[in-house]
Amino acid sequence: MDSHLKAWDKDYASRGRLWGGGVKNLPILPEGSSVLELGCGDGKTLSALPVDWKIVALDVSLEALHLARRVRADVFLIQADAGRLPLREESFDAVFAFHVTGHLLAADRHALAREAARVLAPGGQLFFRDFCEQDMRAGQGEEVEPGTFRRGSGILTHYFSESEVKEIFCDLRPASIGMRRWKLRVKGEPLVRAEVEAVFLKN
Ligand SMILES: C[S@@+](CC[C@H](N)C(=O)[O-])C[C@H]1O[C@@H](n2cnc3c(N)ncnc32)[C@H](O)[C@@H]1O
Fold it and tell me: What is the Cα–Cα distance from 121 to 17, expressed in whole angstroms?
């Protein structure tokens, strides 16, 4: 496993649950929808998803999955790389990719997008969120590829433009794409975060 992927296990093992705050603007899907979450982490988004969806969630980090299990006992969890999904094609009504694509190198971001398109059923939707170039942290750390930075923990973060997101998910049809900003405080320091939020459809 690449060192930037192993870094997640270390981070979860040493810090436990990493992600605070609520989950906003979740899509409404019909009861019984079959949903896949890529990079579910410690289960922050999972905790907010309806119990009447059939949910599969995956992460490369086993430590993350142990934490996610505490949040949702009812979902199917698997340890897997989002760029090589051990899942049948056209088997999901929706795929969530929230703050996972941006933690990959360019080739792996494209692999994730291809795999997401493959496992979506015709008419299915992909929901994407990730930090964008306007984010306060963009540019911090060592630049390992254009727009991708490694910070102290070894974790990589790529900061997207809207056009780049469309280009990566080119196997799908963009239904909406836009930027969202919000304020928060980390250790007393005020930050303005910014993300690209997009929905893609499979024809
Ligand atoms: C910022 S967390 C996102 C958590 C979650 N999506 C949420 O919204 O609550 C990113 C997660 O992506 C996982 N991850 C990173 N690279 C991955 C890959 N190639 N395949 C699957 N998961 C990956 C990390 O282990 C980490 O748990």
Answer: 32
Sheet with 173-186, side-by-side order of all strands: 76-79, 54-59, 34-38, 92-98, 120-131, 189-201, 173-186
Residue 35 makes CB contacts below 8 A (sequence gap 6+) with 29, 49, 53, 54, 55, 56, 92, 93, 94, 95, 96
Domain residue limits at 15: 3-201
Residues 6 or more apart from 36 whose CB is under 8 A from it?
55, 56, 57, 58, 87, 92, 94, 95, 96, 119
Protein residue with its CA nearest to atom 1 in ligand 1:
99
* DSSP letter (8 states) at residue 26: P
pTM (predicted TM-score): 0.95
Average pLDDT over residues 159-175: 98
Provide, rounded to the nearest whole percent, the portion of the chain with pLDDT above 70: 98
Q: How far apart are the C-alpha atoms of 3 and 187, rounded to whole Å? A: 27
Ligand 1 centroid, distance to 39 Cα (angstroms): 3
- Domain total of the chain: 1
4 lines ligand 1 (CB under 6 A): no
Q: What is the pLDDT of residue 18?
A: 67
Q: Give, using CA atoms, the residue closest to atom 14 of ligand 1.
A: 39
CA distance linking residue 65 with residue 72, whole number of Å: 10
Q: Domain with 31 in it: what CATH number?
A: 3.40.50.150
